[in-house]
Amino acid sequence: MQPDLPALLGGTPIRPDGPPGWPLLDSDVQAAVAGAMSAGAWGQYHGEHICALEAELAAFHDVPHALTCASGTLAVEAALRALRVGPGDEVVMAAYEYESNFLTVHALGAKPVLVDVHPHNWQLDETKLDAAFTPQTKAILCSHLHGGLVAMPAVMGIARTRGIGVVEDAAQALGAVVAGKPVGTWGDVGTLSFGGSKLLTAGRGGALLFNDAQLYQRTKTWLHRGLQQWAPLSELQATVLRPQLRKLRALTVQRAERVRELVGELTPPEGKGEERQPNPLTPFPKKEGGTEPTAVLSPSPFKGLTPFPKKEGGTEPETEEVKLFVALSSAPLRLGEGWGGVLRFDPSSTSSPIPLPPSTKLVFSTLPVPSGCRAKCS
């Protein structure tokens, strides 16, 4: 082994058994669960932890209202319903999006209208919005994905001019900040997820954030059948989320420093390699003194990797891409096909007013996982 190389290219692995599982062990979470078990709160309809978590989420995001629910996907549906999206309406969203959001729009009888993403950070391109609007446009659905951030001030300026509602899906970016405001607080309704891969996790769960009391009350009414919420977060889930939320700001700063270190190591020396465009938005809070941290590059390290054509005679070319591809396939990582963007859906189920070259390139040039390794990598 060569210690100066990454493990994937023959170097000594720091973690030979693969990355640690998620979520990490947390003594505060364990103590909270033990306390809920001993007090009996884990099995209550109306215990203290749901109400406390909603108040803490509202305070963390500096909004007056927060509601919890069973999942991030349900939160997006509830948010769209709060904006009264229904049959015959159109919802503008990025062409590279989480497929459940796309299907949620359909579940309401509305039609997704796709706009392109920025070629350098894979987030919804706000300059493409105007071309997507029609008299049927009811809402914009913005998701912050893969460590990047949507330019929410620009999106909101356009939406306000047109009288269009905005749902801001911050499921992957909880704790991030755009132009001094937490993500999830720019839109008319913000949504969060507490799924098993999220920065705050309870295995499942979601939440909604509101500045507007009417939208809050409309959503609360829809989520309740009589006295009971019909798809709630449980008391035990709220119990494990509360200590995680208390640590989120400190952990976000810690992750920011590590990302800056990694980006510094991965960025080619000046004048070498492909020109990289920095993401002007940063998911990290300001350092002491009020200065913004160095911009973080959002593009995937696998940018440009495609399914590799075979040479004549049936052999694959021996390129660095192929070597990485083979190494990833045999590495102790939980690899899978992932999601390739909503462009893979039947075109008749949506509309796109203009061509989508960056989204198309992204969807069809993402690093593939060969079918032969799906079983052993899963």
| CATH fold description of the largest domain | Aspartate Aminotransferase, domain 2
* Number of distinct beta strands: 11
Main beta-sheet strand count, sense and barrel state: 7 strands, mixed
Beta-strand residue percentage: 5-15%
Strand order of the largest sheet: 1-9-8-5-4-2-3
Q: Gap between N and C termini, in Å?
A: 26 Å
Shape: globular
- What is the overall pLDDT average? 82
Give me the strand/helix succession: HHEHEHEHEHEEEEEHEEHHHH
Describe this structure in words.
The structure is a single chain. The chain is an alpha/beta fold and 378 residues long. It has a 7-stranded mixed sheet, with helices on both faces. The chain has a two-stranded antiparallel ribbon with strand order 6-7. The chain folds into 2 domains: 31-245, Aspartate Aminotransferase, domain 2 (3-Layer(aba) Sandwich), CATH 3.40.640; 320-377, no CATH class. Helix 6 links the parallel strand 4 and strand 5 (165-169). Helix 1 (27-39) runs antiparallel to helix 8 and helix 2 (48-61) packs parallel to helix 8. The longest helix is centred in the middle third of the chain and has 32 residues, at 235-266. The model is unreliable at 276-288, 290-312 and 368-378 (pLDDT under 50). It has helices at 27-39, 48-61, 72-82, 99-107, 129-132, 152-162, 213-222, 235-266, 320-330, 357-365, 374-377, and strands at 65-69, 90-94, 111-115, 137-143, 165-169, 177-178, 181-182, 189-193, 206-210, 224-225, 228-229. The chain is built from 11 helices and 11 strands.
